[in-house]
Design a protein that fits this description.
About 20% of the residues lie in helices and about 30% in strands. The protein is built from ten helices and 28 strands. The longest helix is centred in the N-terminal third of the chain and has 15 residues. The structure holds zinc ion. The site of zinc ion has 7 residues, from loops.
Length: about 450
C-alpha cells in the first residue's frame, strides 16, 4: 500500500506541478488553447506529465468570452523520452506518464510573463486568471463551474486550502475556470488534436480542402463533429479570426494523430493533442421542471401538453409537463432539428436535454429522446345512420350526432376517425453538427459501450 505514504497536504495527494489558466481570449482573437503551446515553448526545460487538458465550462454563463474553455498543464521532471503529443515549429512535444513536481511559484512567475504579452486585456469580457499548485484541488470546483455559476470568492477560499498560488488580471474571473480545469478528474473524456496557423496567416481566410475533411470523416471510426452533411460545412475549423487552423475531436488519441495528417490545405505552424471533457455531457443535471434553475443545463422527462407552435423568427415552442409546466423551445439555428419539435403531439412522452432560460422561463432544447408516441387519430367525418345510411348531423361540440331523417342519436365518440402515420419515430434526435455545443454528447458517441462504462 505505497499510496499510504504519498505525501499529502490537507488530505490532497501531491501531484506534479499543475498549471491552469483561463479567460485570456476575446471574441476577435487569441485562444486559451494557443497559450498552452506558448507556455510549453517557454517552459521547455520542464517535462509535460500527462496530456494538456482542455476543459469546457458551463456554456450558459452570460459573461463567457467564446467557448468557455480553460486549460491545465501538468509539468515536472520525468525519466525517459516520453511519447510525441504535438509539434511546435518542427520541434516535437513529448508527454510522460509520471514525474515529480517542481516549484509552482517559479512556474507561475514564468507563465505570467508569457500571458501578459498575449492576453486580450482590452476586451471587457477578458479577465485572465492563472493558478499553479502541487496539489489537485477538490473535484467540487470542476462540477460547480461546469454545472452552475460559482463565485470567485468561494473558489479562492478552496484554493487557499490546497496551498495553490495564483494571479488575477482585471476582475480575475479566469481563476474560476483555471481552478475548475485543474480539479477535473475525468470520468468520461474525449480527445482533441488542434492545429494552429502561422502567425502571419492569423486573421486571413483559412484554406482547408473540404474533400480531405469528408474523406477523414468517412475513414475514421472514433472521430465526431467533423463535417455537417445537412448544411454542407466544414465543422473542424472555427469561424473566428483565432490562431486555430482546425481541431479534430474523437474517442481515440492514436486515431486522431492519424486523422490530423489526412487534412489537406494550409500548413500548420504547430499542433497539440488535448485530453478534454468535450462531448461528455458533464454539464447536464437531472431535474424536475419545478426545480430548474436559471443558467444551468438539465435533463428532464416530460409529457407534451399542447400542439407545437411556430413563433416569430421560426422558433418552435412546445408546452410540456411533469406536474409543473414549461415551454420547450427548438430555436431556429438548430434548423432541421425543429422538425422534431413540430412533429410532437399532446400526450407524447419525451426526455429533453437543454439549457434553462430565466425570463421568460423556458428550456432551450439541445437534444431530445422521444420515448412514447400517442396514436395520431383525427376525426374525418360525422357517423352514418345505420337505418337510413345517411350522414348524421352534429348537435354541437361534443354533443353527439342526430339523424335528420329518423331522429336516431349517437354519442360524440362515434365520429368517423382515421389513424395517421406519425412523422417521427421513438429514439434520440440532435441538432446538426454546426449547432452543437462543445459539451454536447453526439449520438455517434452514445452508442459506444466503452464510453459509459469507464
Ligand atoms: Zn336515420
Amino acid at each position: 500500500m505505497t499510496t499510504l505514504f504519498r505525501p499529502t497536504y490537507n488530505g490532497h495527494p501531491v501531484s506534479p506541478t499543475l498549471l491552469a489558466f483561463d479567460d485570456t481570449d476575446s471574441p476577435d482573437g487569441m485562444c486559451t488553447t494557443y497559450l498552452a503551446t506558448l507556455l510549453i515553448q517557454e517552459l521547455r526545460d520542464l517535462d509535460l506529465i500527462g496530456l494538456p487538458r482542455l476543459v469546457r465550462l458551463n456554456p450558459n454563463v452570460p459573461w463567457k468570452t467564446r467557448g468557455n474553455a480553460a486549460i491545465c498543464l501538468t509539468l515536472g521532471r520525468a525519466k525517459g523520452s516520453g511519447t510525441v503529443c504535438g509539434n511546435i515549429r518542427g520541434e516535437p512535444v513529448r508527454v510522460h506518464g509520471k514525474g515529480t513536481p517542481v516549484d509552482p511559484h517559479e512556474v507561475l512567475e514564468r507563465s505570467c510573463r508569457v500571458l501578459e504579452k498575449v492576453a486580450k486585456f482590452e476586451c471587457p469580457k477578458t479577465n485572465p486568471g492563472i493558478v499553479a499548485s502541487n496539489f489537485r484541488p477538490p473535484p467540487s470546483l470542476y462540477w460547480g463551474a461546469v454545472r452552475e455559476v460559482v463565485t470567485l470568492r468561494s473558489v479562492e477560499s478552496a484554493l487557499r486550502k490546497t496551498g495553490a498560488t495564483w494571479r488575477k488580471y482585471k476582475s480575475g474571473r479566469g481563476v474560476i475556470g483555471a481552478s475548475a480545469a485543474m480539479s477535473w478528474r475525468p470520468r468520461d473524456r474525449t480527445w482533441e488534436v488542434i492545429a494552429y496557423r502561422s502567425p502571419s496567416k492569423i486573421g486571413s481566410k483559412r484554406t482547408i480542402d473540404s474533400k480531405s475533411v469528408i474523406k477523414m470523416d468517412k475513414s475514421t471510426k472514433w472521430t465526431f463533429n467533423n463535417y455537417d452533411y445537412d448544411n454542407p460545412h466544414i465543422a473542424i475549423t472555427p469561424s473566428s479570426p483565432c490562431p486555430i487552423l482546425f481541431g479534430i475531436r474523437g474517442d481515440s488519441p492514436s486515431e486522431l494523430l492519424k486523422a490530423r495528417t489526412m487534412i489537406r490545405g494550409e500548413e500548420p505552424d504547430r499542433w497539440l493533442l488535448f485530453l478534454t471533457n468535450q462531448g461528455t455531457e458533464d454539464h447536464l443535471v437531472n431535474r424536475r421542471i419545478g426545480s430548474l434553475r436559471p443558467w444551468e443545463s438539465a435533463r428532464l422527462a416530460a409529457k407534451v401538453l399542447s400542439e407545437p407552435t411556430t413563433i416569430q423568427g421560426g422558433h418552435v415552442i412546445v408546452r410540456v409537463t411533469d406536474g409543473h409546466e414549461i415551454d420547450a423551445a427548438f430555436y431556429e439555428p438548430s434548423r432541421g432539428f425543429r422538425d422534431v419539435g413540430r412533429a410532437l403531439l399532446p400526450g407524447d412522452e419525451v426526455l429533453l436535454c437543454g439549457s434553462v432560460r430565466d425570463e421568460p422561463r423556458s428550456l432551450n432544447v439541445e437534444k431530445i429522446m422521444v420515448r412514447k408516441l400517442v396514436k395520431d387519430i383525427r376525426k374525418v367525418g360525422n357517423p352514418v345512420c345505420r337505418r337510413c345510411n345517411k350522414s348524421m348531423g352534429s348537435m354541437g361540440a361534443s354533443q353527439g350526432y342526430r339523424c335528420k331523417r329518423c331522429g336516431a342519436k349517437l354519442p360524440a365518440s362515434k365520429a368517423l376517425t382515421k389513424e395517421f402515420p406519425r412523422a417521427i419515430k421513438p429514439g434520440w434526435y440532435e441538432p446538426p453538427v454546426a449547432s452543437r455545443r462543445h459539451l454536447h454528447k453526439p449520438l455517434r458517441r452514445m452508442s459506444r459501450g466503452n464510453i459509459d462504462n469507464l
